[in-house]
Amino acid sequence: MKIKLPVTLYQRILSILSFLLLIGQLLCLILRWNSLPDKIPTHFGLNGQADAYGPKGSLVILPVITILIYLLMIFVEKFPELWNVPGHVTPRNIGWIYGNTKSMLVTLRFAVTFIFFYINYCSVFCRDLGAWFTPVFLLLTAGPMVFFIWRAVHFNK
């Protein structure tokens, strides 16, 4: 059964912001390429400090990974009938349950593009991520999942 989900304003705004972050990541790298030092941060520890360095060519990996994840998430969003959604699905709530799950996926896509944009930005400008990065990263990735799954499970109550 093919499920057709409308796009909400929330989903549209986050989709546009995700795309802009993806383009921003590419532009940041392209515009700064000639002024990048030969060695740039390639890995950061849990404290947000750079702990490994490599050639500037290694920065190309970040946008490639971002693009692959971005496209994979868009692909998954296009086939809701394949999702294993949280909560009890009934004919009455099917639209809401699947819409809620789509909002979770769109939110996670935004979080991932934001995180990779920030890592790319810090690498391009040879800055540390900051000690706050790890807890914020965990909140940005786990938070939406917890929130939207909680909503789905408690929708019928």
UniProtKB/TrEMBL annotation:
Keyword Membrane attached: yes
Name assigned to this protein: DUF1648 domain-containing protein
Alphabetically ordered keywords of this record: Membrane, Transmembrane, Transmembrane helix
Pfam families listed in its UniProt record: DUF1648
InterPro entries: DUF1648 (IPR012867)
Keyword Transmembrane helix: yes
Annotated ranges, domain DUF1648: 21-67
